[in-house]
Every structure is written in structure tokens, then in C-alpha cells.
Amino acid sequence: xTYRKRVDAQQSHIKSLRLVIGLLIALGLYMAYGWQSAPxxxxxxxxxxxxxxxxxxxxxxxxxSVYAFGLYIFQQMNRWPSNGETDYEDxxxxxxxxxxxxxxxxxxxxxxxxxNSGELRKRERGVFEIxxxxxxxxQEPHVQQHSINDWTVNLDITADEHYGGERVKRAFARxxxxxxxxxxxxxxxxxxxxxDCYSGNPQRIEVAAEPIRAGDKG
Length: 218
What we know:
The protein is of the alpha+beta class. It has a domain at 63-204: VirB8 protein (Nuclear Transport Factor 2, Chain: A). Helix content is 36%, strand content 22%. The chain is built from 4 helices and 6 strands; from the N terminus they run ααααββββββ. The chain has helices at residues 2-37, 63-77, 84-94, 101-116; strands at 123-129, 143-145, 150-163, 166-181, 193-198, 203-204. Strand 3 and strand 4 (166-181) form a beta hairpin. Helix 3 packs antiparallel against helix 4. The longest helix is centred in the N-terminal third of the chain and has 36 residues, at 2-37.
């Protein structure tokens, strides 16, 4: 009788061990699935000014990052180093990963309209931020957040155009860029943002007269 009890106890212990082993296998498979499905890369937006501590949700994009993205893409799109007829279209293709489909179509139509009217032939163009009217200007907000996924970036820009080595145009304008969150292709767009063209029409602005430089004629 004692021998039979020992056998029954061993059988019960073996069943308990099998149950524990089965649970451990199931837990291991679950952890392996979670590890395999976890994202390999996670973009964290950190404001440029790191002189003080900063705590924010990982999904939040600070206005400094949105502004820097908008300015960078806008400058790249409007940089025509030799000939606007080729440079403008090349920029649309090269920067397509940072554009929404609707904005890409809008820019393509704008390119064709300007090309057909002769505005791009042998034109050199560059744009830059008006000094003192950037993101650090506290008098007016240059980034307006509409939701966690879209913003309006107001760029105060100087646009210079040259033809045959001579400057033929200088314009001061505010461009209200519409920026949206777009984490669809980190290989082509590591910013996780996209330019959705404009929230409204660009507006001409007035700036102080340029200072007279040494050598300029009065």
C-alpha cells in the first residue's frame, strides 16, 4: 500500500512539473512574439535647446522640431542653383518622401505653370529666414498646433532670384506651411513629418531697409 502511494505521488508530481513546463513554454512564446513585433526604431523629437531638463511624451513633437523641418524642406524646394526649369522639378522628385501626395501634385502644377510662362528659364533662386523673425521671436508664435498630428508653420522668408548673375527679384513674404505627422516610411523620411503645402495664401511683409555696406554706392 505504501509503495502504491509513493507511485501516485510521483505521478502527481510529474503532472505538476509538466503543467509548469507547459506554462513556461507558453510564456516564452508570448515574450518572443512581443519582442519580434516590437518596433526596431523609435523616433524621439528632442528640442534643440538642451541647457535645461525637459520631459515630454515620446509621441509629442516640439514646435522647434516642426519649425526646423518646415524651414529645411522649404529652403531645399526653393533652391535652384543653376536653372529653375530643371532644378525645381528635380527638387520635387528628390523631396517627394517629405511631401504629401496632394502637395506633390500642387507643386508639379505650379512648376508646369511657371515653366510655360517662362518664369523659370535660367533663373537661380534661394530663400532664407529673415533675421530676427524666426522661432526664437517671442512677439508672435511661428508654430500653431491644431492637433497632435498637424501644425501651421509661419515662415518669414526672403526670396532672391538671379538671372545671368544679376539679382532680378527680392521679395519678403510670410508662408504658412501646413505640416502633418507622417510616420509611413522611415527609410525615406526619418523626420516622421510631411509638408502638406499651405494653410493659406502667402502674404507680403514689410521689413526694415537693408543697411548700407562698405563699397555700396549712395
